[in-house]
Structure prediction request, 209 residues.
Amino acid sequence: MGEVKSSRREKSEATRRKILHAAHEEFCEKGYHGATIASIAKRAGVAGQTVYFVFHTKSALISAVIDNLVMGEEEPTLPQESPWWRAMVGEPDAAAALGHFIRGAGPLFERASTISEILRGAALTDDEVRRTHEFHEDLRRTAFREVVATVAEKAPLRAGLTVDTATDILLTVYGDTTYFIMTKERGWTHDQYIDWLRTALPTLIIELQ
Prediction:
């Protein structure tokens, strides 16, 4: 009996992954409004009803796509549970700690910035999508505020900055939109952008000695 349940779970998870991969490709090719549940189902090789059964709505589907890209697929992990986050917390030097975060979070931006920008654009004209976008932005702000608070325990923030205003700077300079513009529109490589951030961000938010 246990083997049957395990087989069903594996089949269900395989179907879910196929839908997520198909949705990612459809959203990137056609945008949020251009992609349909029918086209996603066709690409995934499943019935449209299966997509609705697993994810219920298109906004829930794009939200799940982002979660899958951010946390990883094989062993989903929250950023706060990652080795690079622990390295940031344990690093006594503020600039080096911020560097651990910048470098560690880089692959997340590399995977998810495009789909996040698609979600941001769709949120301008769709209230349900706007709520989904705000949910993800709230998660990101909470995580980035943790980063700033951690760094601020190791060195003072620049004069005039609070944890909240420093978080605003971090969110803007190291955000999906900026990453997308620099790497997709301006032609910077991922490594170029990450190296620049590791130099620039400490000077923007930390009172360096």
